[in-house]
Amino acid sequence: MSATSFQPIAARPAPTDSRSLPAWLRRNLFGDWKTAGSTIVLGALLLWFVPQFLNWSLLQAVWAPDLKACRAAEGVGACWGVVAEKFRLIIFGRYPFGEQWRPLVATALMLAMLVASCTRPLWKPWLAVLWVVVLAVFFVLMYGNTLGLTKVETDRWGGLPLTILLATLSILMAFPIALAVALGRRSDLPAIRVFCTLYVELIRGVPLISVLFMASFMFPLFMPQGLTIDVLIRVLVGMTLFAAAYLAEVIRGGLQAIPKGQIEAAATLGLSYWQIQRKIVLPQALAMVVPSIVNSFISIFKDTSLVSIVSLYDLTGALDMAINADANWKPFKLQGYLFIALIYFIFCFSMSRYSQWVEKQVNKSKGR
Q1: How many CA atoms lie within 13 A of 176 on its CB side?
Q2: How far apart are CA 193 and CA 191, in angstroms?
Q3: Which of 21, 162, 196, 360 is most buried, taking the most CB atoms under 10 A from its CB?
Q4: What's the predicted TM-score (pTM) here?
C-alpha cells in the first residue's frame, strides 16, 4: 500500500464585518459601476442643492413677522414671518379669535385618542367607550351652544381641527363599511354580491371632487322642502363612502389570498360562517394587507385638502384664505405651503412608521 501524502487546505480569508459602515456603503452605494455612478451623480446634486436650500431656508431666513425685512430678503432668504403672522388663521381657519382655545383643546383630545389607539397595552374594550366620549366632547367644544359656550356654526370650522376631524371620522366609519363590502363581494348571494360590486365600481369610477360636489350642491336638491343637512355631515358622508370603496378592494385582496383549504377545514369542524371569518379568515387577511390599508389611510388624510371646493376651509383652504386676503403677504405664499407640507408630512410619516411597526408585530407572530 502506498502512503498518501497530506495535502493542506488553503486558508480562507477571514470573514468581514458586514455591519460596519464601509461594508454597508460598498453593498448599498458602490456595489457595481452603475450603482457607484448613480451614487456619485446624486451625491453631487445633493452637495449642490442642500447647502443652497439650507442657506435660503435657515441661515438667510426672516423669522419675525416683519414685512419690510421679508421684502428686503426676497430672493435671498425665506420669509417664515408669514407663518408667524398668519399662524392662528392657518391653524384654526375662520373660528372666532377669542374662542380658539376650544379647537385647540378639542384637537389635543383627538390626537391623544389617536395615540392611545395606536398603543397596544391600551387595546381594551373601554377604549371604544372613551372614543364616544371624546367625540362628544369634541363636538361640544367646537359647536358650543351649551355649557355657556357660544355657538359656532360648522361653516366657520377650519384649519387643522377640521382636517383631523374629517380624516379621523372618515377612517373610523369607512373601515367597517369596507369590511362589509369586501365580504359582500365574495358572498354566495347574488343580490348582495351585485349590490356591493356596483357600489365599488360606481364610486371608483368618479373622482373625489365629483363626490364632494354632489354631496354639497346636488344632494340638497333632492331633499324634501324645508329639510337641510349640514354641509359638514354631507362632506363627511361623501368622503367616507369614497374611502370605503377603495379600502374594500384592499381588504378583498387579502381575503382572496387565504387558501380555500383553511375555510373548508374550518367548516368541517362545524364552525359557522361568521366564526370562520372572525377567527380564521379576517385575522390573516387584514395582516397581509396592513401596508395597503395604511396607504389608504394616508390618502384619506391628504384628500381632506379637497373640501375647500365646497367652502370648508381645511388646512390648505385656511392657508389660501389667510394669504390671499392680505396682498402684502401674498408674495410669500410658498413659505406657507412649505409649512403645511411639513404638517402633512409629520402625520403621514407617523402613519407610515406605525404601519412598519404593525408589520413587525405580525411577522413575530408568524415566526412562533
Answers
A1: 3
A2: 5
A3: 162
A4: 0.84
